[in-house]
Amino acid sequence: MGCRSMSKQETPLTRAYWKKVGGTLIEEFLAVPRGMGHGPRLIDAVILPNQPKRIACWQDVRLEGQEVVVVQTKAGRLGMNLMGQAFFSRELIKKFKLFFYSCLPGRLRKLL
Hints:
The protein is α/β, with parallel strands linked by helices.
């Protein structure tokens, strides 16, 4: 599975924030692969701020020991749905890292 593109309204917002933060941007980060009885869970973006400034696919990066910024982007008004997505995306990254890499991130931030 290759890199996925984001929505036309959300991509400019995410990239504007990434330009301020810097680092490696991974759009549509696959936090939970498709499985029996459930679909995949994608996070709008993950930024590794201490890595070189570039755009990468989720398959091309390793998260262990990295500072991770989890980004959920919404072009409209902020609401409980987006806040819930941001909160649980952070939790999914923790579980992703524990499940796949058996370690915790060096530091994990979430952005609403």
